[in-house]
Amino acid sequence: MADEITKEQLEELAKAGPVSAPSFYASAFRIMGTGNDFVIIMDRAVPLQGQEATNYAMLQPVAIVSVSPGALKDLSIVLAEQVEKHEKEFGKIVTHFTKSRGL
Q1: Which residue has the higher pLDDT, 75 or 35?
Q2: Dist CA 24 CA 62 (whole Å)
Q3: What is the pLDDT of residue 53?
Q4: In a 3-state reduction of DSSP, which class is residue 38?
Q5: Count H helices, E strands: the chain?
Q6: Listing from the earlier edge strand, what are the strands of the sheet with 57-67?
Q7: H-type helices in the chain, by residue range?
Q8: Radius of gyration over alpha carbons of the chain, in Å?
Q9: Which of 57, 49, 59 is nearest to 25 (CA)?
Q10: CA 87 to CA 79: how far, in whole Å?
Q11: What are phi and psi of 28, to 5 degrees?
Q12: Rounded distance, CA 26 to CA 43, Å?
């Protein structure tokens, strides 16, 4: 079978280190598009301080990713597949956004 990993390949994989790339956490996304590309702004909620700001938060960008329309389409398919697998194992994911869309 062509997909099987040989012992030598497994030994080489064991020598590999972690991917060296920044890691971000995002709880919200904004997407803007033109005819040529899309910009995904990944945000996280940051609590506000002060007497009048109790129980309020603002969105703070943590990363901006630019992708082509084709890459965004591929990403949407892969994400949908991953969500489907997750929900089969752990149950339906319900958010304010999905409720507002009737999903």
Answers
A1: 75
A2: 7
A3: 65
A4: strand
A5: 3, 3
A6: 28-33, 38-47, 57-67
A7: 7-15, 69-90, 96-100
A8: 20
A9: 59
A10: 12
A11: -155, 155
A12: 5
In Å, the largest CA–CA distance within the chain is 66
- For residue 26, give the amino acid letter: A
Residue 101: what pLDDT?
92
Nearest Cα neighbor of 64 from 24, 12, 4, 17 is: 24
pTM score, whole prediction: 0.68
40 forms beta bridges with 31, 65
Q: Where are the domains of the chain?
A: 23-67, 70-103
Residue 8 has pLDDT above 70, yes or no: yes
Q: What's the pLDDT band for 2 if we cut at 50, 70, 90?
A: low
DSSP-derived letter for residue 20 is: -
Instruction: Give the DSSP letter of residue 64.
Output: E
